[in-house]
Design brief:
mainly beta, five-stranded antiparallel β-sheet, five-stranded mixed beta barrel, 12 strands
Amino acid sequence: MGERNTISREGRRFSYPMAAGVTIYAGNVVVMQSGAAKEGLVATGLVAVGIAEATVVNSGAAGASMIDAVAGTYRLDNDAVDPVGLTDIGNDCYLTGPASVAKTNGTGTRSRAGRVRAVDADGVWVTI
C-alpha cells in the first residue's frame, strides 16, 4: 500500500437526514434514532450528535429535509428532579428534553447526552 490523499474536514458540523414530520428548533440537542434526526427527548437508543444551528421543519417523509448540528460543549438546562451536581463533573449525563439533562439514566429510560464539563447556577456544560 502506498501514499494516499486522505481528505479531511473540521469534524464539528455535520448534516443529518431528519425523521418524518418533525421540527427541530435552533439551540436544541439533535439526536439520531434509527438513522433519522430529531430533538432530544426521554427515550433509549438515541445518540446525541450536536446542537441545531437553525430551526428546520420536515413536513415530508424521513430524509426529505436535512438538519445541521454542531458538536461541542454547550450549557444545557439542569433537570430539577434529577439534577447534575459538581461531583458529577467528568461523568455522563442524560437527556430529559430537547435542551435539558439529568444526573442518571432514569433506571434505563434515558439516553446519554454527553460528558459533564462544569455545573453553574445557569445549567450544565455538556460536551456532545
